[in-house]
Write a structure and sequence with these properties.
4 helices, alpha+beta
Length: 109
Amino acid sequence: MNYKANIFHRDFFSKDETDKYDILTSFGVFEHFENIEDSIAHTRHYLKDNGIILTVIPNMNGIIGLLQKLLNKPVYDVHIPYTREDIKNAHEKAGYNTLFCNYYGLYGY
């Protein structure tokens, strides 16, 4: 598609970060925070007004979560089992418009 982009790895909690970005991605981060609403709201600091956030978390409520709990409980225990609705609501409370929010693959249930 001939896209050109710069990818930055930043400290989410840095108070020194002043740059604003077009896209923020989070792969397996927010399910570790007890207050998901505050942590997602914090991302607004890093995005341009028309910026996009892409959030991916494991579904610890479905079959994968159950298997994780049975097969490796210490890993399960470091995750908070947020639902799809929890994630959607936290983003919308932070002022984001949801374009898509769903479980991925066979293991969403």
